[in-house]
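Risk mitigation, structural track. In case the binding assays with FE2/S2 (inorganic) cluster fail to produce interpretable data, a predicted complex structure has been prepared as a fallback.
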Amino acid sequence: MISAATKEKVEALASAFPQRRSGLMPALHLIQQESGYISPEATVFLSQVFELSRAQIHETITFYHMFRTRPAGRFIFQVCTNVSCMLRGSEEIMQTLSEILGIQPGETTPDGQFTLQETECLAACGAAPVVQLNEEYLEHVTCRQIRELIAELRKES
Ligand code: FES
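Fallback model:
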């Protein structure tokens, strides 16, 4: 459900540009920040505000890997698997996460706490391998750090 405050901000974004559609990307970020994903209800709302078809909204959401169409866990691990990270062990990192969490990339744990995703280059290649945990980058990450981190996060949840 989109709050009244977010709806108001989205309307303001659409009005801020000569072409209403130019405000779509920041609007998608706003909605995902609030709801965790872009729901079918949000797609309908956005199509009305930006005067675009639902298919056009859906195309935009699915083109960019940072937008989700399904609810995600409280902790979202995104493992970069591009060249620099791959050469520095990202496959092992992904395998460790997958084993500890008991899920495959693209899945969320049944308790709704953890989501695991593969992602494209996070633009921090010099710090490979890189994992993004929610908004934070984990740089030069090791499998041991991942194990310790998950143990800590499980205590929090
Ligand atoms: S290749 Fe992983 S951050 Fe660029």
